[in-house]
Specification:
Number of strands: 8
Largest sheet: 5 strands, antiparallel
Distance between the termini: 203 Å
Radius of gyration: 47 Å
Length: 352
C-alpha cells in the first residue's frame, strides 16, 4: 500500500489541477452569466414596477378627468358618470393592463435568463407554440369571453347600476367582470351572462329616458281644453320636488293617438332622468286624473246609437198597442161597430 500511495496522491493532484484549470477557464463566463442574470432580473422587476405605477397614474387621471367632466357638464354629466361605475371600470382596466404588462415583462426576462444559462430555447418555444394552439382550441370560449369583456369595459358599454337588455337576459347590472356579467332580473333572480354570448346590448340608463302616457277622454270633450289642462298640470308638477330634477324637458302633447266611438286618446311624452320614466309616468297619470275631475272632463261618453224612429215597425205592434190601451185605466172606449142584419130584423119586429 505504501508503494501505491504516491501514485494516488499524484492522481488526486492531477484531478485538482484539472479542476482548478477548468474553474480558471470558466469562472469569467460564470461571473458574466451571473451578472447578466442578476441584471436581467433586477431590470425586469424595476421595469415592471415603473410600468405598473404609470398604469396606476393613467387610470387615476382617467377617473379624475371623468369627475371634472361631470362637474363641467352639470346635472346631466353627474348622472352619466356614476361613481361606483367609474371606480369599477377603472379598476378593471387597470387590472387588465397591469396583468398584461407583468406577463410580457416577466416572460421576456425568463426567456433571457434561460438563454444566459445556455438552455436551447428552440424546442421550448416550439412546445409552447403547440401548447398555445391546443389551449386556444380547447378554451376558445374562455378567450372569447375574456376579450369581449375587455372591449365592453374599454368602450364603457354599461356599468354597475345600469338597466340593460343583453338579449339572453335583462335587468340591473350588479357586477361587470372580464368573463361574466352579473344581472339582477325584474323578479329578483340573478343572471350570470357570459360576455362572449352577448351579441347586442340595449342600455336604458345612459343619456335619458322617455315617459309616455296615453290620456283617454270622452268623445265629445273639447280637445283644446283637455290639452290646456294637461300642460298646466305637467307644468305644476315640474315645479315641485323631486320632479324638478327628474323631468329634464317640458311635457309635450304629441296629439291624437286613436279615436273610438266613445273616447279619444291623446299621447303625452316627457324626457326624464335615465331609469325614472315609469315613476314619472305613474305620478303624471295620478295628477291628470285629479285635474280632469276638477275640470269636469269625462274619460268616456255613451256610445252613439241609432234613433228609435229609424227602427222599422213590427207587425204585432198595433195589437200590442191596442191591448195596452184596453188595459190602461181611463183609456177612451172604442167607437161602436155597425149592426148586423139579424139585429135590424129583431128591431123591426119589436116596433110592429
Amino acid at each position: 500500500m505504501l508503494g501505491h500511495t504516491p501514485a494516488s496522491l499524484v492522481q488526486v493532484r492531477q484531478s485538482a489541477d484539472q479542476a482548478a484549470g477548468w474553474v480558471d477557464q470558466n469562472w469569467q463566463g460564470w461571473v458574466e452569466s451571473g451578472v447578466r442574470i442578476v441584471f436581467v432580473v433586477v431590470l425586469a422587476l424595476v421595469l415592471r414596477t415603473m410600468v405598473r405605477k404609470l398604469i396606476t397614474q393613467l387610470i387615476t387621471r382617467m377617473a379624475r378627468g371623468a369627475e371634472e367632466s361631470a362637474v363641467v357638464g352639470g346635472r346631466l354629466g353627474g348622472l352619466l358618470v356614476n361613481a361606483e361605475r367609474r371606480r369599477q371600470r377603472s379598476e378593471a382596466i387597470g387590472s387588465v393592463l397591469r396583468s398584461v404588462a407583468s406577463f410580457v415583462i416577466l416572460g421576456t426576462a425568463a426567456l433571457m435568463v434561460l438563454s444566459a444559462l445556455g438552455v436551447n430555447l428552440a424546442p421550448l418555444l416550439a412546445s409552447a407554440g403547440v401548447a398555445g394552439v391546443a389551449i386556444g382550441f380547447g378554451a376558445r370560449n374562455l378567450v372569447t369571453d375574456f376579450l369581449s369583456g375587455v372591449f365592453m369595459i374599454l368602450e364603457d358599454q354599461y356599468g354597475v347600476g345600469d338597466e340593460i337588455d343583453a338579449g339572453v337576459a335583462s335587468g340591473t347590472v350588479l357586477e361587470v367582470g372580464l368573463r361574466v356579467t352579473k344581472l339582477r332580473g325584474v323578479g329578483g333572480e340573478i343572471w350570470y351572462v357570459r360576455n362572449g354570448e352577448v351579441k347586442r346590448i340595449a342600455n336604458m340608463s345612459q343619456g335619458w329616458s322617455t315617459a309616455t302616457v296615453d290620456v283617454q277622454v270622452g268623445y265629445r270633450e273639447d280637445l283644446d281644453q283637455v290639452q290646456s289642462v294637461i300642460l298646466a298640470t305637467a307644468e305644476e308638477m315640474a315645479k315641485s320636488g323631486p320632479w324638478d330634477e327628474l323631468l329634464w324637458e317640458p311635457v309635450q302633447v304629441l296629439g291624437v293617438e286613436s279615436v273610438a266611438s266613445d273616447s279619444v286618446v291623446l299621447r303625452v311624452e316627457a324626457r326624464t332622468m335615465p331609469g325614472k320614466a315609469g315613476l314619472v309616468a305613474r305620478s303624471l297619470r295620478a295628477r291628470l286624473k285629479a285635474a280632469f275631475d276638477g275640470a269636469g272632463i269625462r274619460l268616456t261618453n255613451d256610445a252613439v246609437t241609432a234613433s228609435p224612429a229609424a227602427v222599422a215597425p213590427v207587425a204585432t205592434a198595433p195589437a200590442a198597442s191596442a191591448a195596452a190601451a184596453d188595459a190602461a185605466p181611463g183609456a177612451e172606449a172604442a167607437p161602436p161597430t155597425a149592426p148586423t142584419e139579424a139585429q135590424q130584423s129583431a128591431a123591426h119586429i119589436d116596433k110592429g
